[in-house]
């Protein structure tokens, strides 16, 4: 266990005064919110407001222009490389396209992080791969290539790979992008089921209202115009009670645009 990690900290993630830029281009500023352990936390907002950018900062791909992101009380960006790696090893990430390696079978894709980061032997890895595939409903698909299975199955296989190292936090960028509503709904159910059964915290970027309400118990709403968060909390609460009209309007597809209830 990392020396600086505080296991008693209820917040899996704390975002403090965060400012996100690409060069001089400001994307978001003054972001402040907490993700509690076990939350399914939704990053919401209209197209181009910076949802993916925020997620990329949260998984350490980009450094913030200002502010902090703390994991179990430890600031990621001021930590040494070794501590950053040990934090990253506790995360599972799935990107927008599923992003499996096309030249590898599903089993090889899922085994890859295990081979990279663990000293598990071959049999152990084979069993763990089979278990992860079973968790996402893909038992028996070990030897299939990504091109041989459907889009929805690819997403589920991507999820199995994200689960490879038994993560404490799972990050998803638009997990159901490109899926039909039924498959998207099934993927939502699976994400919720896996987070509940493993106790993992989930951080998810989506603008799908159905997903936001089906699985999110907490979240943050980003605005492209003011370039800051308009609200944070439970999406179902924000829908009726957010003090920001734009949030109520967005979450109700324009049906609740007047004063908060
Ligand atoms: N690598 C980059 N360099 C410069 N600008 C970028 C980069 N990536 C994204 N942007 C810009 O940052 C802004 C936010 O993009 P981002 O993809 O984070 O938004 P988003 O809310 O996830 O959008 P969407 O819902 O459409 O996927 C956009 O104006 C985008 O053009």
TrEMBL record:
GO terms for molecular function: ATP binding. InterPro entries: AAA+_ATPase, ABC_transporter-like_ATP-bd, P-loop_NTPase. Residues 13-249 form the ABC transporter domain. It comes from the Bacteria. Keywords: ATP-binding, Nucleotide-binding, Transport. The keyword Transport applies. Coiled coil: none annotated. It holds the Pfam family ABC_tran. This is ATP-binding cassette domain-containing protein. It comes from Endozoicomonas euniceicola. The lineage of its organism: Bacteria, Pseudomonadati, Pseudomonadota, Gammaproteobacteria, Oceanospirillales.
């Amino acid at each position: 266990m990392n020396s600086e990690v505080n296991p008693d900290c209820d917040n899996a993630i704390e975002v403090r005064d965060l400012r996100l830029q690409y060069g001089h281009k400001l994307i978001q500023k003054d972001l402040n919110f907490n993700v509690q352990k076990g939350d399914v936390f939704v990053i919401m907002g209209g197209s181009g407001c910076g949802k993916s950018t925020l997620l990329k900062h949260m998984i350490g791909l980009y450094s913030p222009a200002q502010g902090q992101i703390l994991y179990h009380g430890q600031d990621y960006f001021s930590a040494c490389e070794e501590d950053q790696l040990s934090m990253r090893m506790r995360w599972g990430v799935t990107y927008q396209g599923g992003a499996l390696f096309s030249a590898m079978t599903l089993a090889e894709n899922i085994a890859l992080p295990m081979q990279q980061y663990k000293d598990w032997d071959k049999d152990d890895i084979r069993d763990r791969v089979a278990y992860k595939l079973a968790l996402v409903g893909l038992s028996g698909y070990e030897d299939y290539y990504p091109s041989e299975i459907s889009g929805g199955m690819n997403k589920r296989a991507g999820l199995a790979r994200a689960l490879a190292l038994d993560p404490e936090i799972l990050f998803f960028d638009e997990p159901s992008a490109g899926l039909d509503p039924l498959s998207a709904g099934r993927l939502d159910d699976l994400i919720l089921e896996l987070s509940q059964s493993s106790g993992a915290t989930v951080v998810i970027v989506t603008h799908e209202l159905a997903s936001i309400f089906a699985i999110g118990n907490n979240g943050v709403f980003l605005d492209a115009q003011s370039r800051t968060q308009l609200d944070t909390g439970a999406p179902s609460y924000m829908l009726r009670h957010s003090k920001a009209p734009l949030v109520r309007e967005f979450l109700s597809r324009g049906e609740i645009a007047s004063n908060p209830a």
